[in-house]
Design brief:
Strand order of the largest sheet of chain B: 1-2-3
Radius of gyration of chain B: 21 Å
Number of domains of chain B: 1
Distance between the termini of chain A: 18 Å
Number of helices of chain B: 15
Strand content of chain A: under 5%
Shape of chain A: globular
Largest interface: A-B, 29 and 30 residues
Helix content of chain B: 40-55%
CATH architecture of chain B: Orthogonal Bundle
Mean pLDDT of chain A: 84
Number of domains of chain A: 1
Structural class of chain B: alpha+beta
Structural class of chain A: mainly alpha
Number of helices of chain A: 12
Distance between the termini of chain B: 45 Å
Largest sheet of chain A: none
CATH topology of chain B: Cytochrome-c3 Hydrogenase, chain B
Number of strands of chain B: 8
Largest sheet of chain B: 3 strands, antiparallel
Oligomer: heterodimer
Chain lengths: 368, 374
């Protein structure tokens, strides 16, 4: 159980402990500093993703995309952020003001909380919880509360419809997501994401996605379900622009709207990271993530991002290619196909492990 | 009544809603996601075009016809010109007839691009819409070459057209229709038309039977989508449309039952191909030289009488009912448009569908708000 926080704690303890700084202060500092750093990282990546989305969609649609601010328009997203910061913050008269103000923070917090247990490669993980996967599942369900809250508090019928839609959608798709993640837990016997990454290897055949044929199915179901959890096309019902105008965030403006937006894009990256860590071997380069040198650790981070960013690209690509499903079709897809199939995957993987002594096609169960 | 009685939610969709295609309002009664009823409320774009006609000289009204349906303005020009010519008994030069057909069919293609493109946009597919608009851009360029305007063309004149073909138009136009017929339509269909999600969204949704289509006076592609083979260009040819060889596509229930949204979508794609065929034939048959406009008497008057002329616009039957008292301007003009009759069926179709389906139905009927209200 090592993580960035643990490492920082050791270092701080060595240097500051001698000067009589109380241990409580060191512990708090050791956890707060990585949290702030990861918040910055996630926000920056979310910003970069908005830029990437605009550029990629422009490429798909024979347009140019942002190219005015900075080289290749790279500074577009900070400029957008500043613009939104200066926008008038409009709160409707009829809105439930407290809930209205609270909702965007809740959504953003729920999204960013999930990033605490994401192993970015090496020892770059804020907290290596032994319930990491469950933590992510639980925290991302908190999003629903925020969406529902914003939909209800706006006192707008379109927003309410969007909020209800998102609640139905996210709760339904939690199940296949959780079930497919459980298949991995079945193999590794741990919920800790760092352990799951360590159990895999640097080469593709050592990744869990190729553990057995059912895992491949599970990975596809996981990816599609997480598209639905992120409210991305073809499942963007909560904010279906042409149906619900803009859904739950229709009454929001300025920074509150930006928080919803940032949450959506951070979610893309976090889901891609989760898929990378759980199914695609994360930042594993076949070395111990804690004891190897800083250079190797940075290499692990690079490997991690090299896997996560293409997944983000796929998410964006899908959005700009497919039309939207209808809400009943989306629900029936989840309950009639995804949940049964992911159950079958779980059971068959268990049977596979029983039959082959826990070994995958290429993956070998470590000898204990 | 108990304290917690349940009732339907009344939603106000529009006039500024992204998928109402302009300024159009629907009053929805919904039970959660399910629609109980949708009542269209039209009139936000009423500009009194019919009244304006009474105050203007016969030729002077032509630019206003652009604004009847700004997505396909040449077709609206053409309907008015044909009506006045029939009433005043004016012959149109051969070359002008060909030019009119070329411009009108190009305009039909451009309009259908907006028609199915906007439908796809309403279904959440942004990219196909932009691809359709990219092709419409070539159409805009062609029209700009032809008459200088890109949206409100005002190309047709009473007794002819305003301008002859410019240099290079023929080649560019031929390349455009070849590109559409052989490249773009196939690519577009591969991209979106055969997409399972799209088929699930459109097939078996908003079914209009042939009887219903007749009862609700649907016209144009919406009527043909229900399987009724009726095209004014074929059945009541005006101008020189009887000289061209083209098919009239009708809805056959490609992926569902005849008359569903997918049929109405597919009809428009097929009509683009047919229009390409007409343009190619018209470019081939276009006389090399000749008059493009009949000289009108000055001051231009139309003998007393009345006439109803209907032409096939991209949104269905476009009828001009003209009454002349022999003076310099129309005594009365009534315009009958396809979008207005499409609005009548929405209340019937919207019963018991989902909110998302209503958006698909409105999109598939291809209404343009100014054409409803005039």
């Amino acid at each position: 159980m090592y993580s960035a926080a643990n490492k920082l704690y050791e270092i701080l303890n060595q240097h500051l402990g001698a000067y009589g700084v109380p241990e409580t202060v060191i512990t708090i500092a050791a956890y707060v500093v990585p949290c702030v750093l990861v918040l910055g990282l996630i926000s920056t990546i979310a910003g970069m993703l908005t830029y990437a989305e605009r550029k990629i969609s422009a490429d798909i649609q024979n347009r140019v995309g942002p190219n005015r601010v900075g080289p290749f328009g790279l500074l577009q997203f900070p400029v957008d952020g500043v613009k939104l910061l200066f926008k008038e913050d409009i709160i409707p008269d009829a809105a439930d003001k407290k809930l209205f103000k609270l909702a965007p923070y809740l959504v953003f917090t729920a999204t960013v909380l999930a990033s605490l247990v994401i192993p970015f490669g090496g020892s770059f993980i804020v907290a290596d919880l032994n319930i990491g996967l469950i933590f992510i599942i639980v925290v991302s369900s908190l999003l629903v509360v925020g969406f529902l809250m914003s939909g209800w508090a706006s006192n707008n019928k379109w927003a309410l419809l969007g909020g209800i839609r998102s609640a139905a959608q996210i709760i339904s798709y939690e199940i296949p997501t959780a079930l497919t993640l459980l298949t991995v837990v079945l193999i590794t016997g741990t919920f800790s994401l760092q352990e799951i990454v360590k159990a895999q290897g640097p080469y593709p055949w050592q990744w869990f996605v190729f553990y057995n044929p059912f895992m491949m199915v599970a990975f596809i179901i996981f990816f599609i379900s997480s598209l639905a959890e992120m409210n991305r096309t073809p499942f963007d019902f909560p904010e279906a622009e042409s149906e619900l105008v803009s859904g739950y965030n229709v009454e929001y403006s300025g920074m509150r709207f930006a928080l919803f937006f940032a949450a959506e894009f951070s979610n893309i990256f976090i889901t891609a990271s989760l898929a990378t860590a759980v199914f695609l071997g994360g930042g594993n380069i076949g070395m111990d993530p804690y004891s190897s040198g800083l250079g190797f650790q940075l290499l692990m981070v690079a490997v991690f991002f090299a896997k996560a960013i293409p997944l983000c690209f796929v998410t964006i690509w899908v959005r700009w290619t497919l039309p939207r499903l209808r809400i009943d079709q989306m629900m029936s897809m989840c309950w009639k196909y995804f949940i049964p199939i992911s159950f079958v995957c779980l059971v068959l993987t268990a049977a596979w492990m029983l039959a082959f002594d826990g070994n995958g096609i290429f993956w070998r169960m470590p000898k204990t | 009544m108990s304290k917690y009685s349940s009732q339907e939610m009344v939603l106000n969709m529009g006039p500024h809603h992204p998928s109402t295609h302009g300024v159009l309002r629907f009053i929805l009664q919904t039970d959660g996601e399910m629609m109980v009823k949708a009542v269209p409320d039209v009139g936000f774009l009423h500009r009194g075009i019919e009244k304006i006609a009474e105050k203007l000289p016969w030729q002077g009204f032509m630019p206003y016809t652009d604004r009847v349906d700004y997505v396909a303005s040449v077709n609206c020009n053409l309907g008015y010109a044909v009506a006045v010519e029939k009433l005043a008994d004016i012959a149109v030069p051969e070359k002008a007839e060909y030019l009119r057909v070329i411009a009108a069919e190009l305009s039909r293609i451009g309009s259908h691009f907006i028609g199915f493109g906007a439908l796809l946009l309403d279904l959440g597919a942004v990219t196909p819409f932009v691809h359709a608009l990219r092709e419409r851009e070539t159409f805009n360029d062609l029209m700009e070459m032809l008459c200088g305007a890109r949206l409100t063309h005002n190309y047709v004149r009473i007794g002819g057209v305003s301008q002859d073909l410019p240099q290079g138009f023929k080649t560019k136009c031929r390349n455009f229709v070849d590109h559409l017929e052989h490249e773009f339509i196939d690519e577009f269909n591969d991209l979106i038309s055969y997409n399972t999600i799209l088929i699930n969204r459109l097939a078996n949704v908003g079914v209009i039977t042939a009887e219903e289509a007749n009862e609700y006076t649907l016209t144009g592609p919406n009527l043909r989508g229900s399987g009724v083979k009726f095209d004014l260009r074929k059945d009541e040819p005006y101008g020189i449309y009887d000289r061209f060889d083209f098919d009239v596509p009708v809805g056959t229930g490609k992926y569902g039952v005849p008359g569903d949204c997918y049929d109405r979508y597919w009809i428009r794609i097929e009509e683009v191909v047919q229009s390409c065929r007409i343009i190619r034939q018209a470019l081939y048959g276009l006389p090399g030289s000749g008059e493009i406009r009949t000289r009108l008497a000055k001051p231009f008057t139309v003998p007393a009488g009345e006439i109803y002329v209907r032409t096939e616009s991209p949104r269905g039957e476009l009828g001009y009912y003209l009454i002349s008292d022999g003076g310099k301007n129309p005594f009365r003009l009534k315009i009958r448009t396809g979008s207005f009759s499409s609005m009548t069926i929405i209340e019937h179709l919207s019963q018991g569908v989902m909110v998302a389906d209503l958006v698909a139905i409105i999109g598939s009927l291809d209404v343009v708000a100014p054409e409803i209200d005039r």
